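MODEL INPUT / OUTPUT PAIR
PAIR INDEX: 1
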Amino acid sequence: MKVAIIGGGNMGGAIARGLAKGSIVKTEDITVSDPSQKILDTLKAEYPAIRVTSDNNTAIADAHIVLLAVKPWLVEKVLPSLKMEKSRQILISIAAGITFEQLIQWTPSGMTIFRLMPNTGIAHLESMTIVCSHNASKEQELQVLDIFNEMGLAMLMPEQSMPAVTALAS
């Protein structure tokens, strides 16, 4: 399974580090895209097998999971520019406050989408991650839960619980 992370900052970088420490996703199957070469160089120095790029569409080209880890105010700019394939890719957004309703507007029709609220403990496999899904099968939900349970504890909740979870996590 190949994972592309769009945004290598605090949370995107923490998730990349957590994935690299786990066993479900091979380190060489993780690609991180970020406009900051310094962020990419730091990540590459820590985990030489992680692939890095400043081109988002290069990052997602062969990814099964596209994890959007940009600031909420950048989602509307970044997401529509991604050339995703709904038949083979899953979108995971960690952008706080960006709802499924909004994400659906900026993605191919029928896309499987997850919203997550992790914390930076994910880099050390100690996160509490809240997960909600849209248009996902039970198998896809279990796959995402397995990935994030490896980096701490993950729990599936309905989207209407996200604002409360976000407030508690902040």
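PAIR INDEX: 2
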Amino acid sequence: FRAWDLDHKCMDDDFFIQSNGIVHDTPSKTYNTPNTEIEENPNLVLMQFTGLTDKNGVDIYEGDIAVKKCSKFCEIGEVKMIHGCWMVAESDDHYFNLWHYRHEIEIIGNIHQNKNLIGG
């Protein structure tokens, strides 16, 4: 996983996921204890790794923006889990299988930092 920090508008790689799914971050305040303290952070948006890489060897995560170039047109969309499969969704009713096209697509950003790359 990686996480988008809604407060700081950046990716956060220093977090913990509790077995019940609650996301914890390193503390933003100092405590007077010898223990390392963690805090629940509901402002971290988890992005799951698909286990796949694009044609350039870039890891593909949920929420990434992928482009597939064809001879006459390009298809661009968001990486999502749909019907139990990783897909690239151009819209709610038009998507293609990420596994099948993984060697043809390129990751060009993610929905948090590059919303302008896809419609909506």
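PAIR 2 NOTE: The CA atoms of residues 4 and 11 lie 5 Å apart.
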